[in-house]
């Protein structure tokens, strides 16, 4: 059975539970990722005699399994890893974690138990076939772990992980296309764990030749493991100081140049001159200026520019300060602009990166047209030359204590940059002449005002009443779609103002009931219906690529909603991408590996002694718990057992009525002087047992009547519970048996129509209603703001004051 992405992620993250408490996340990541690597290469080598990694006898993960419970498990794991490292020239890469470290893993039995459980977590994962036509389940799981390690670590861990969302933007804006040759090179001088390089390589159909350098030894080891886990074993990642000792040089001893470059260097590095004299740099990286001694941000940008071919393109993540800081950095910035190297700047939200909350930007370099765009002081006024700027600082979602770019944010940024789209308050091509007029300051707010227009109050409306037409006209996008709705809500008042025809509380219902809204709602679903039919999701077959599928249908959905009024195509796209991440992705991965027959599979949930159930069961039959792989029982019930469910609902309603009647009766009659007070048990509760016991002793007529009444309700409740349980068990059994008889056509209907289509359509309907609510809220706000003009308020205050004075006089308190 294919492993689901989320199941793989949760299993790997569960392995971390065995290590938490003994060490920081930045440390236990080395243990988890090393075992992940060992399991992966062992499984791959079993089925592939030509595997890039040779697994010699005594160096496989199975040899680790044999050590479970062994008193010397830590030392023996180290030796197994050492053998594999020696055989594959991976010493210093996969053998950094010490599995015999008592300070981190405990002593004696504690270490044995911890490592035994850790190995057991990986034991059940089959990683021999983790790819589905280009989809890298394990590589994605690695990225998942890296994100969580960076999140959990309280230290600055940006050096080993760049958020994958930001990596995707860099990879897409540097110009890699489907036509890019496999021989093209991509370079990262501050490679970290290699995520930026891998994202860039993924943009080319057959990948790219990867080169990188990383100063931190442990992090460079992570990068090399990451490359192997992503089937990029030939990638060249070295450890060393890129600035003082760059590894990659040409035959003449100068810097090797590459087709593409990406980088997320350490922000504001204060030690960048260590081992380096910038005034005598043999590689000529500081031709355009020397960065400040205590701030090395521009150092890495200059290194990247020098490391690109004459046609090369690159993107570097830097703190926002590089765009506007003065002195030496201002001179460098001016020179780079005049050279024409800076193609674009993308401003990112604050708090995206681990270890820092400051906002950052992406500087996009393009040397291919730099010469054509370079200019002298004589032609600074040219309007043909520009820098494309994007202010993407407002588009993100909160994710714990960090901000995170959504799929729609990434797509909007990439669309705007690659297509040079001019979008209000978001993007524009800024003429070099304008930049020059601002002393080459590139601070994005100077050129793009991304702030929302201020909501100004109209003093005349406050004094004389009426809704300002200017406020209503500002909603012109809505009135173009609902021209008659405005007329049904407002009538002309004094010049420049309108009067409300309905109460503020009735605005939304008036809109929803209007024929124009109903037409809009119907028409807004038509692109979805056309898209869904075109997507042909019922044709998914074994071997298909889930990643290619979601890319294709995502782009098609964007296109379908490109011209739909009021609805934002990126919001619609996000609905699909969220559902894909939460549910649909897992379903498609199973289908592409196991086929549609997986829809009838119910997996028994087995719990080992002493462990808790990790998954919520979908069905329980004769105390055996099952999990449906693709089709939840609720969908089966809805399609095939609606009548039985209706009967069950009736039984539940009857039970609820009885329970409510019982609760009301006890609440009324178990008071201090009530007839049921003697039926309270030692916990001050009236129960069936306490009522039965009291009936044997009671003699008072009122008390007996109350006791008999409440006992009758208890008896009825017991009988109803029994009937409900029997009916539920019968329905569960019928559903359980029905799974086995499902034909492929049944599975496709249940999954494609009842599950995917119904869910997505429901969420798009909710988005349509959200737009309506947006209009209604604004109109209600305006109505409440100007409902009572100042004279009316003053008159009301005077009337109330007179009433108070009259009451005080009547009480003899008047002055």
From TrEMBL:
GO terms for biological process: DNA restriction-modification system; methylation. One of its GO terms (molecular function) is N-methyltransferase activity. Its EC number is 2.1.1.72. Residues 10-122 form the N6 adenine-specific DNA methyltransferase N-terminal domain. Signal peptide: none annotated. The keyword S-adenosyl-L-methionine applies. This is site-specific DNA-methyltransferase (adenine-specific).
